[in-house]
Specification:
heterodimer, A: alpha+beta, 2 domains, four-stranded antiparallel beta sheet, 68% helix, B: alpha/beta, six-stranded mixed beta sheet, 24% strand, binds adenosine-5'-triphosphate, binds magnesium ion
């Protein structure tokens, strides 16, 4: 496939092609943001849920602090002997106070306020544990223990992540469809504007592929130009947003991070846009030409 | 070279503008296509240069059945045909030189040869000083000469000209007609649609006369002696 048309029969740079490049730039910009957002959310969420599925917490509530400590100790002993558990650790009063501070305010946690004891359990990597059996087992030594494996929370996270990903995918699909429509309209306008020249070329024996080559070159240029501009703008926006998010401090916002292949897809957007434009234009031109004798 | 059998043609849903045309054009022949305005001359030429399909009948061109030919086979046939369109159909944004170079470009000739041939032919039709002018700035006669130059530059086997001398003075008309006669001598089959009786009588080639879409019997030269200069033969 030679990129430059062998025979040039349409005047250069006097059509609406420049406009098309800008429309494609906007499309690639929006597409880049949606993809980066979708990928970023997916990665952040899988990081979170990964951490959460590796941990459990056990709550022991009893108004009598001595009994509470006895049950906590017994549970810790039992957990130490349970396979698949990397670490089990009772939270200190200080940590509990920190945890409750948003609800109770600082300094309001008095010793006589019955605060449940918490045990933080970290699972060994790549293990799954029958949490129901574990909970029953713990209750034999600590009847007031309640086990929380964050399933409800994880379930909601997964739902939310799924919704965000599907929305991003939907946006990308809509962008692709609009791009196709815009390129079709642009191609039809181009065909109409140069109809006379195309007919003459046709009548003096030019092949369809010679005529198509003129359009292919244009759409490739417009697609690439628009794609590069759109990608540059999208990259700038993503950098700016991650920088602003970084200023909020650690912990609050998850780290924005993409896999290599996700970066590759983003980097390939201009090329994909050019290919989409060329493919659409080709269909449109060839269909129009096939209506000529 | 060309064979029509009971060919009919209509535009869209309209009535037939050509009816029951049967004719044969031998290779190397020279024919005038005459008839009053609206008789169907341009329409008949459109069938010949493959811009329109017949609504019935059979057309054979260069031994190829046009009605059943695949679309992809047509460009190669068109490249063997030179056409002078009644409305010229020049590329308005190209220079005169680029305009007449196009058939050679489509044929895939080498660039230096293309330029050389194009310049020579422009010179021949008297347009060498208008080489870089664009058609909208040319006079009617200049456009006509340019259109003729583009039609003949690739040495077509069949030349179709629709009123090729309508916009030039008698002198230039004779000159152009001489070009057609010369091309015919080296083997190009000619069909020239014209109203110009003087021209028809001067060349004394056989005439295909159309009347309301029907072919009146061609004026076979019969007793008329064949012009010794042009060595025209009967169809
Ligand atoms: N594109 C078209 N659509 C519909 N009808 C057409 C079209 N072109 C020509 N006609 C009709 O077909 C008939 C023949 O037209 P054509 O142009 O072949 O005549 P002609 O012999 O070339 O006339 P002239 O000497 O004026 O050029 C006319 O009645 C004309 O109105
Ligand atoms: Mg006509």
């Amino acid at each position: 496939m030679t990129l430059k048309p062998v025979i040039q029969f349409i005047p250069r740079g006097r059509e609406t092609g420049g406009l098309l490049a800008w429309v494609i730039a906007v499309m690639v910009y929006l597409c880049g943001l949606s993809l980066a957002g979708g990928f970023g959310v997916k990665n952040a969420f899988s990081g979170w849920t990964g951490e959460l599925t590796q941990s459990l917490s056990i709550q022991i509530s009893h108004t009598d602090s001595a009994e509470r400590e006895r049950q906590t100790g017994a549970a810790l002993v039992l957990l130490a002997d349970t396979p698949g558990i990397a670490e089990a650790r009772a939270m200190t009063n200080r940590e509990l106070a920190d945890l409750l501070e948003p609800w109770l305010g600082s300094g309001n946690l008095t010793d006589d306020l019955p605060v449940p004891a918490m045990i933080d359990v970290t699972l060994a990597p790549n293990t799954t544990i029958d949490t129901g059996a574990l909970a029953a087992h713990i209750r034999t030594v600590a009847p007031d223990a309640r086990l929380d494996d964050h399933q409800q929370w994880i379930g909601r996270l997964v739902d939310l992540a799924g919704a965000v990903e599907w929305t991003a995918a939907g946006i990308v699909l809509l962008i692709v469809l609009s791009t196709i429509a815009v390129v079709m309209l642009g191609t039809q306008a181009g065909l109409a504007a140069h109809r006379g020249s195309i007919e003459i070329m046709h009548l003096i024996g030019a092949e369809d592929k010679t005529i198509w080559a003129e359009f292919r070159y244009r759409f490739m240029i417009h697609g690439l130009k628009g794609g590069v501009i759109g990608l540059a703008l999208a990259a700038g926006t993503v950098l700016l947003l991650t920088k602003l998010a970084g200023k909020l401090g650690d912990g609050l916002m998850p780290q924005f991070r993409l896999e290599i292949w996700e970066w590759a897809i983003l980097a390939a957007l201009p090329l994909l846009a050019a290919l989409l434009a060329i493919w659409t234009a080709r269909l449109t031109v060839m269909r129009a030409l096939s209506k000529m004798m | 070279m060309v064979r029509f059998e009971n060919v009919g043609m209509r535009y869209g849903m309209g009535g037939e503008v050509l009816k029951d045309i049967s004719l044969t054009l031998e290779p190397g022949s020279f024919h005038f296509l005459t008839g009053p305005s609206g008789a169907g001359k341009s329409s008949l030429l459109k069938l010949l240069y493959l811009a329109h399909r017949p609504s019935r009948g059979l057309i054979t061109l260069f031994g190829k059945d046009i009605v059943t030919a695949r679309r992809e086979e047509l460009p190669a046939l068109r490249r063997r045909i030179g056409v002078v369109f009644q409305d010229f159909r020049l590329f308005d944004h190209m220079t005169a030189l680029e305009n007449i170079a196009m058939p050679l470009r489509i044929a895939g000739d080498k660039e230096p040869a293309i330029l050389k041939k194009s310049r020579e032919l422009l010179d021949w039709v008297g347009l060498s000083d208008r080489m870089n002018a664009r058609p909208p700035t040319l006079s009617g006669g200049e456009k006509q000469r340019l259109a003729i130059a583009r039609a003949v530059i690739a040495r077509p086997d069949l030349l179709l000209a629709d009123e090729p001398t309508g916009n030039v003075d008698a002198d230039m008309a004779r000159r152009l007609m001489h070009l057609f006669v010369e091309l015919n001598k080296i083997g190009t089959t000619m069909v020239i649609a014209t109203h110009d009786r003087v021209l028809v009588d001067a060349v004394r080639a056989p005439e295909l006369r159309l009347r309301r879409g029907e072919l009146e019997l061609g004026r076979t030269p019969g007793g008329i002696p064949v012009d010794p200069l042009t060595r025209m033969t009967a169809p």
